[in-house]
């Protein structure tokens, strides 16, 4: 029996476990389906290549065949360990555009304006550059500059400026538009995941229990009140019970799945899966949004990239020593060092395109090791605010079965046109004079792009996810919303969802820092709710005591 049960030890769950257990008077249980985050490849930034292939630390999701992407089923990696995807991502610290959060508030979510969420971004952050109006210091999450940027990443910045994109030193500053290097969630050249930042300092608290390898199967209820969670661990079904709240922080794929397994979702969908309906909430699993990404790749004529090459193999021992002793060198790279935010046309009020520059040849999420062989560089491009919507569906009533992911990419034709403009701008940057001394053969696209139709065909054949699924338990007050502005599940008691699934709209950037901000803000909401209940209980007790005194006085009289 615990006061709070958190399902999912990822970016949001680690934050919640740490913040809620700060109060020694409450007990917290954190359930994580994956193992502990002890593998060395988690903590070494370049280990991201291994994490993409791990069958233990990665969920290895796949979408349904996507009609607009030549019928391909896309690979969706997702972290499966303490820290979740913050233990396997590219460590990019990005908040998105301030207007993204103002748009959330405008959809019936008071308290979510950018000026209202900024304090939580700052509270979470230890910005190595120092405190400012927009940045905080002293928080658990360390934010640092790229330790050893590759010469090709510097060249990318020069090329972007030559292509008309202004230099930007801080994409989380007053302006998002521009080109520069990312800041990363690293500390001394090592990954600073949510588990390292938040959970590690809290692990020895007697009021925090962390259970790994615990696959949640369903939420337990008494009437409309959540009272616990059933989970499977090492082949056995077990239960934990909550005095106050059950909080789902399992992510945009698993949180809606768990709600549906528990009888909360579209009644018709639940019935077809053989699930008894507890609450008809048709928005559960709907509103799925993700950033679609396509890559342009060149060979490099000089031996300078981070690919699998003879030069890098020979210097591997030296770089390993630099990494272990000083936290510098090739092993500290996040893979995507360079960044650009740009507008696809002058009519766009804010950037609608994001670029990630990788100083290596990249294909199939880095899982194609043969393609990594040789010198090269890659430029990703994605449309920041897609209008296409997909959904997460149950594959049946088995809790261990992976859900059906219907991403529905490019179902809105406007999304394709943004991508076409993005590919043109990517090739313009890579054709700039700064790359003249490095530019080799264009490997991808693997066919001439003589027209917009050629570019569309290229996108259909080669585009992939860039790992930002959100929206499947969206926050709002409309009929398709799942949680309210306090992240409480509509029509239920003692049940919240706190993760990227509550985002009503995909933000214009990477989603890890926003997810941690959501959890920071939610922890205050949960604490305030407990204080309110305590005050009500005290007031009720005082009334009862007063009535008892009056009753005794009357009896005595």
The CATH topology of the largest domain is FAD/NAD(P)-binding domain
Number of helices: 15
**CATH class category label of the largest domain:** Alpha Beta
The pLDDT mean sits at 94
Question: What is the number of beta strands?
Answer: 25
Please bin the fraction of helical residues: 25-40%
Number of domains: 2
Low-pLDDT residue spans:
none
- Report the CATH architecture of the largest domain: 3-Layer(bba) Sandwich
Largest sheet: 7 strands, mixed
CATH superfamily of the largest domain: FAD/NAD(P)-binding domain
Give the strand content: 15-25%
Radius of gyration computed on alpha carbons: 24 Å
The best one-word shape is: globular
Distance between the termini: 46 Å
Structural class: alpha/beta
Can you walk through the features of this model?
It is a single chain. The protein is of the alpha/beta class. 31% of the residues lie in helices and 22% in strands. The chain has two domains: 1-62 and 84-141 and 187-286 and 470-557, FAD/NAD(P)-binding domain (3-Layer(bba) Sandwich); 147-181 and 292-383 and 410-462, Cholesterol Oxidase, domain 2. The strands form seven sheets. Strands 1, 2, 11, 12, 13, 14 and 25 form a seven-stranded mixed beta sheet that branches. Strands 7, 17, 18, 19, 20, 23 and 24 form a seven-stranded antiparallel beta sheet that branches. The chain has a three-stranded mixed beta sheet with strand order 5-6-8. The longest helix is centred in the last third of the chain and has 45 residues, at 512-556. The protein is globular and about 95 Å long.
């Amino acid at each position: 029996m615990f006061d709070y049960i958190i399902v999912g030890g990822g970016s949001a769950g680690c934050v919640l476990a740490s913040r809620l257990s700060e109060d020694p008077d409450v007990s917290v249980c954190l359930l994580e389906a994956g193992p502990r985050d002890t593998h060395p490849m988690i903590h070494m930034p370049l280990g991201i290549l291994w994490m993409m292939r791990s069958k233990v630390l990665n969920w290895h999701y796949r979408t349904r065949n996507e009609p607009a992407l030549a019928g391909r089923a896309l690979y969706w990696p997702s972290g499966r360990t303490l820290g979740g995807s913050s233990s396997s991502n590219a460590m990019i610290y990005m908040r998105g555009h301030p207007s993204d959060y103002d748009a959330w508030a405008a959809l019936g979510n008071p308290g979510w304006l950018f000026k209202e969420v900024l304090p939580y971004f700052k509270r979470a952050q230890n910005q190595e550059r120092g405190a400012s109006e927009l940045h905080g210091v002293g928080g658990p999450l360390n934010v640092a500059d790229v330790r050893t940027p590759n010469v090709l990443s510097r060249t990318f910045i020069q090329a972007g400026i030559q292509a008309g994109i202004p230099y930007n030193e801080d994409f989380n500053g007053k302006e998002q538009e521009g080109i520069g290097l990312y800041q990363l969630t690293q500390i001394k050249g090592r990954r600073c995941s949510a588990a390292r930042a938040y959970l590690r300092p809290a692990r020895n608290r007697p009021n925090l229990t962390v259970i790994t390898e615990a696959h949640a199967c369903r939420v337990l209820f008494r009437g409309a009140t959540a009272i616990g969670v059933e989970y499977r661990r090492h082949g056995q079904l077990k239960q934990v019970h909550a005095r106050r709240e059950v909080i789902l922080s399992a992510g945009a794929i698993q949180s809606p799945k768990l709600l549906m397994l528990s009888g909360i979702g579209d009644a018709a969908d639940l019935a077809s899966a053989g699930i008894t309906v507890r609450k008809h909430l048709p928005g559960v699993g709907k509103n799925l949004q993700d950033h679609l990404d396509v890559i342009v790749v060149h060979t490099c004529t000089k031996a300078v990239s981070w690919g699998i090459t003879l030069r890098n193999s020979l210097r591997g021992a030296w770089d390993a020593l630099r990494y272990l002793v000083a936290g510098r060198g090739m092993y500290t790279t996040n893979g995507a060092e360079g960044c650009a935010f740009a507008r696809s046309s002058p009519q766009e009020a804010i950037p609608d395109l994001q670029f990630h520059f990788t100083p290596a040849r990249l294909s199939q999420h880095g899982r194609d090791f043969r393609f990594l062989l040789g010198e090269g560089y890659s430029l990703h491009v994605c449309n920041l605010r897609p209008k296409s919507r997909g959904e997460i569906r149950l594959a049946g009533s088995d809790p261990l079965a992976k859900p059906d992911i219907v991403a529905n990419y490019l179902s809105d034709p406007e999304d394709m046109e943004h991508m076409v403009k993005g590919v043109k701008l990517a090739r313009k940057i890579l054709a700039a004079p700064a790359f003249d001394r490095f530019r080799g053969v264009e490997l991808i696209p693997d066919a001439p792009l003589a027209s917009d139709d050629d570019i569309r065909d290229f996108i259909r054949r080669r585009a992939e996810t860039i790992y930002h699924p959100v929206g499947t338990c969206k926050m709002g007050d409309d009929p398709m919303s799942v949680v309210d502005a306090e992240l409480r599940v509509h029509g239920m008691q003692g049940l919240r969802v706190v993760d990227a699934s509550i985002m009503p709209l995909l933000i214009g950037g990477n989603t890890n820092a926003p997810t941690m901000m959501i959890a920071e803000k939610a922890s205050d909401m949960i604490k305030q709710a407990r204080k309110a209940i305590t005050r009500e209980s005290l007031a009720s007790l005082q009334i009862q005591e007063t009535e008892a005194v009056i009753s005794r006085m009357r009896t005595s009289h």
